[in-house]
Design brief:
The protein is built from 14 helices and ten strands. The protein has 393 residues and is α/β, with parallel strands linked by helices. α3 links the parallel β2 and β3. α2 (47-61) packs parallel to α3 (79-89), α4 packs parallel to α5 (157-174) and α10 runs antiparallel to α11 (334-345). The structure holds 6-deoxy-beta-L-fructofuranose and manganese (II) ion.
Length: 393
């Protein structure tokens, strides 16, 4: 299979040029596991420096014009000033992530905690995050809850769902304008018996109950091994409830590795469903975000690589001959249908993307260009002293 030419190629290039991938502020900071957080030179010490790094990723890729914030990791006195700084750097402040999973009060849960005072505290944080969105102009409030239990009998599962629903309702009713609530699910960790939003079905059910502003967020690392994520994508697309992705990859659990590193074919299959539904463009209302931790590798090049991996999976999905595919599917020609998809997946799209970058005035090889830029040497020299940013866990 070869890359098409003429109008067909123009259509593919247009779709790739309109792609937008939001990078996470926390991926620029130190991160690790419960065993060790390995600090790295040049790591940001505050949200301003995180935004500078995110802007650098956008400068070399051209498709990462916004950065997701996490509160309180990105707490500042003046979010208007932070927004202006981001704009000066050529990026925008994106999704606001609430954090009700690191406070001692939340040991037995945040919005699902048996203690109404603790629930109140957690809900007030969610509302405070919407206040921040009002200043930054962010569209999306992303909610991931670590809430769950570790032992059978620890709490009443149905009662916790009632508490969750009540908290979500209060946050939802606070939204205005084009603001949305993204409910992210996760099978387990840090809870190891029940998790209150463990799977797409639970998130979907709560989002249906809440209303049209509530959408499901799929974190690709949050499923049981063997889960067919593209089925979940197709189902939620059809239901109009797919709001966002937290892209990363994993070999075992929530490893938060570079998207496409563990299973590039899975990212392709996911993007194939999105291309088939014409849902890759920014106007289609799906937020494409990375949610990764670069525990041992250099952070900025890893994020540039991750953005390129999403672009490559998207380009391959855009090369699928959908006419031939539908013909084979309609005629029950299983092998041809599969071959049509595999032809696209096995096509080298790197020259196409390199040309596209060159036409945008970017270096065809963003990672090499980043290394040549001296940006790392500069931040390593400048960012001395102060406390490096991290999860503070
Ligand atoms: C939870 C999660 C969530 C974020 C956090 C940084 O595992 O995926 O999206 O809040 O990582
Ligand atoms: Mn996530």
């Amino acid at each position: 299979m070869t890359v098409p030419t003429g109008p067909e190629l123009d259509a593919v290039r247009r779709r790739l040029l309109e792609q937008r991938i939001e990078t996470p502020s926390w991926a620029y900071g130190n991160s690790g596991t419960r065993f060790k957080v390995f600090a790295q030179e040049g790591v940001p010490r505050n949200p301003y420096e995180k935004i500078d790094d995110a802007a650098t990723v956008h400068r070399f890729t051209g498709v990462a014009p916004s950065v997701a914030l996490h509160i309180p990791w990105d707490q500042v006195d003046d979010y208007d000033k932070l927004s202006k700084h981001a704009a000066d750097q050529g990026v925008a402040l994106g999704t606001i992530n609430a954090n009700v999973f690191q406070d001692d009060d939340y040991k037995l849960g945040s919005v699902t905690n048996p203690d109404p005072a603790v629930r109140r505290k957690a809900i007030d944080h969610l509302l405070a995050c919407v206040d921040i969105m009002d200043v930054t102009g962010s569209r999306d409030l992303k909610l991931w809850f670590a809430d769950g239990t570790n032992y059978p009998g620890q709490d009443n599962i149905r009662a916790r769902q009632d508490r969750l629903a009540a908290a979500l309702r209060e946050a939802y009713d606070r939204l205005t304008g084009d603001q949305r609530l993204l409910l992210e699910y996760k099978l387990f960790e840090p809870a190891f018996y029940t998790t209150d939003v463990p799977d797409w079905g639970t998130s979907y059910a709560h989002c249906l109950e809440l209303g049209e502003r509530a959408m499901v967020c799929i974190d690709t690392g949050h499923h049981a091994p063997g889960t067919n994520i593209e089925f979940i994508v197709a189902f939620l697309l059809r239901a109009g409830k797919l709001g966002a992705f937290d892209f990363n990859s994993r070999f075992y659990a929530d490893d938060d590795l570079m998207v496409g590193a563990a299973d590039p074919f899975q990212v392709f299959r996911i993007m194939n469903e999105l291309v088939d539904a014409d849902a890759t463009g920014p106007s289609k209302g799906i937020a494409y975000m990375l949610d990764q931790c670069h525990n041992i590798e250099a952070k900025i090049p890893a994020i540039i690589r991750s953005v390129m991996n999403v672009q490559e999976a998207t380009a391959k999905a855009l090369l699928v001959d959908r006419t031939a595919l539908q013909r084979a599917q309609q005629s029950g020609d299983v092998l041809t249908a599969n071959a049509v998809l595999m032809d696209a997946f096995n096509t080298d799209v790197r020259p196409l993307l390199a040309d596209l970058r060159a036409d945008q005035g970017l270096d065809p090889d963003p990672i090499a260009a980043y290394h040549r830029s001296g940006y790392f040497e500069r931040i390593r020299a400048e960012r001395v002293g102060g406390e490096q940013a991290g999860w503070g866990a």
